[in-house]
TrEMBL record:
Signal peptide residues on this chain, from the entry's feature table: 1-19
Classification via InterPro entries: DUF3455
Protein known as: Malate dehydrogenase
Superkingdom, natural source: Eukaryota
Keywords: Signal
Length: 235
């Protein structure tokens, strides 16, 4: 019942999305419509008194709700979980940026995501909650140096940039703060600069919900995936 109410709340937000833009293009065959709303009013709410994350003065190019998992492996030497990357679906929330729902969409989205069984994918969630615009995917690839992994935001396969092979952002982290609510469970807020791709020059991860691993693990623990949501601002 609780989950249903949250889904209803998010659906209401999503209905506003559908109602907002005049002349919304018809859904793509895959079920996802191209983004149509302005990002002019979309602003990051960054904590004061820090210099790690500095908002650009221009409007973002894209504002997305990321719905996915953070992956971890148990380090046998420290018995702590270490990050092995993440994978998330990126839903356009530009049509929410002038509505009250914008502030809480990551919280409602996380509650719905958490309540669903593992068999339901993030893409399925987008369809169920009526957030129709899948901009692309966030995941990790081998770093250009050949060592380690780098985060990528890839819009080449879905949405209005589908088929455009340069519509991606490969980033390197340049700023990192604990989430503004200062919880132990939410992943950090980040700033990243472009390393490759022409999708954007900067990406920010903010308004995170969940995604942190347990504080310790026992030797031989299996790899884990921890569900999370976050807002991603691309400039
Ligand atoms: C993260 O784990 C999911 C399964 O939960 C998997 O599909 C994905 O490929 C993993 N990604 C990385 C970068 O480890
Ligand atoms: C491809 O997408 C990039 C943004 O990622 C844009 O700068 C470029 O103009 C696009 N190219 C074409 C041919 O549409």
């Amino acid at each position: 019942m609780f989950a249903f109410q949250l889904l209803s709340a998010l659906s209401s937000a999503a209905l506003m999305v559908a109602a907002a833009p005049a002349g919304l293009a018809p859904p793509r065959p895959g079920g996802f419509a191209p983004s149509t709303c302005s990002t002019a009013a979309a602003k990051m709410d960054l904590p004061a008194g820090q210099t790690q994350l500095v908002s650009p003065t221009t409007a973002p190019l894209f504002v997305a709700l990321g719905v996915g998992v953070q992956n971890y492996t148990c380090s046998a030497s420290t018995l702590k979980y270490t990050s092995t990357g993440a994978v998330a679906s990126l839903f356009d929330i530009s049509c929410l940026d002038t509505t009250p729902a914008f502030a809480s969409v990551q919280t409602l989205g996380y509650a719905a995501w958490k309540a669903l069984p593992a068999s339901v994918t993030a893409d399925d969630l987008g369809a169920k909650i009526g957030a129709p615009v899948l901009l692309g995917y966030h995941y990790f690839v081998t770093s250009p140096s050949g060592t380690g992994i780098s985060p990528k935001w890839d819009f080449t396969s879905t949405g209005k940039l589908a088929g455009n092979s340069s519509a991606f952002f490969l980033g390197t982290k340049v700023g990192d703060i604990t989430d503004a609510a200062n919880t132990a469970v939410n992943v950090d807020w980040l700033a990243l600069n472009n390393v490759q791709g022409s999708l954007a020059s900067k990406v920010f991860r903010v308004d995170t919900v969940n995604g942190q691993p347990p504080t310790s693990c026992v030797a031989g623990s299996p790899d884990i995936s921890v569900k999370y949501t976050a807002k991603y601002f691309l400039y």
